[in-house]
Design goal:
Layout lengths: L3 H11 L4 H11 L1 H12 L3 H13 L8 H12 L9 H10 L8 H16 L3 H9 L1 H12 L6 H18 L15 H7 L7 H12 L3 H11 L6 H8 L4 H5 L4
Helix pairs in contact: 2-3, 2-13, 3-5, 3-10, 4-10, 6-7, 7-9, 8-9, 9-10
Length: 252
Amino acid sequence: MENLEKINELVEIFGHFDVEFAKNMEEKMDTQYLVLQNLKYSMDNDEMFIKLVILNSIVSYQLCTTGELWWGEFSEYWSKNEVNNDNLGEKYINFLKNSKGNRRLLNVKIKRIEKVIPFLETINLLDFKNYYVTMEELLEKLSKCLNSKKNAKTIVFALKMFGYSSRIVFNEFIPYPMEIEIPKDSRIEKYTLKFTDKDPIKFWNNISKITKIPPLHIDSIIWPVLGKKFDFESCNGKIGKKSKYLFKLLEF
C-alpha cells in the first residue's frame, strides 16, 4: 500500500531542499558530524582518524544507546588515546569491549573489525583522498571485506561517515554519489511506513531521483530531524528560512 497524497506532499517539501541545504544540515545540525569535527582537531594523525571512523561505522548497530551518544563516546575516547597502524585493530577492539553504548553482539562485531583491519592496514591518507573522489570503489572494497551486499546498512553508513571524515580532513565538499543508497536503520524504516509498506531503500531511491538529491544526503536531512532532541529553534538560526520545511516532515 502507498499513500500517494502523502508521497506527493513529501516530494513537494523536498523540492525546497538541495545538496547545499543537506551539506549545511550535516555540518551545522548533525551531532555525528560535529563530534567527528571535534575529534579530528584533537588528533594529530588524519590517517588514523579516518580509519577509526570506518571501524566505528561498521559496528554502529544494535546499540545500547542513541547513535548520537555512541558517536560522542567514540569521539571522547579517541581524543584521549593514541593509536597507530600497528595496533589499530587491537586498540579499537579493546575500546569496543569496554564501551558503554555498544555492548550487544560483541563477538560478531569484533569479527567484523578483524575482517576490515587487513585492508585498512594497506592504505594511507593519499589512498583515502582518492577514495573520496571515487567513493563507490571504497564501498566495493568494504563490501568484499565483510562479505556483505553493497546496500547493507552498515556498509553505506560507513561510506556516509567516511564522507564526513574526508570532508573534514581534506577541507573539500564532494557530494555523495546518487548510486549509494540510504542506510535502512530503525528511524528510516519507521518513517517510511508513513508513506508506504514497500522497501525503504527503493522508496528513497525514487525520492532521490525525483528531487535530484543523493540518498545519503536525504538521510542527512531526515535522520537528525527524527531524533528526540532535535532543536528546531536552533536549526532555524543556523540553517535559515528553509528550516521551516523540516518541521513539515514531522507532520505526516
